[in-house]
Amino acid sequence: MNVYRIGKKKYIKDLSGQGARFYGGRWNYFGYRVLYASESIPLAILEYITKTGAVEEELINLSIAYIEVKDDASFSTIKIEDLPEDWNTYPVPEDLKKIGTDWIISAQSLILKVPAVSAPDSYNILINPVHPEFKKINLLKVSEYQPDLRLRKKK
Asked: What ranges do the domains of the chain cover?
């Protein structure tokens, strides 16, 4: 399985999950490392734009990381019906941060597939960089990404 993430060129090769540790995320508390990716490039684009608010300065100097997850890697899946009713709201419900952080701590699996708020029939992919199977993750390539500037937030 290949997964994808979009980010600033400066950080795109960093698969350590440190960004999520420093800032927290929808599925993790501050202080816990996790790598966020998506199951497709279009979903990765949508997630990036949703996260940054499509502010024009956030749409420059971007790259796409193509990440291979070996077929024998362990994974868990969370389905929408298993989530609290407010799972897709903002600000992020504490329950989601607890679910993700508990998964990280438990080391239950290398991968956690979670529904994407921006496209609920699709999945974002959480990768636990401190899991013993992390060697089953491989950065295949990084490509420059120039988004269509029509995506930017209008003033």
From this structure: 2-147
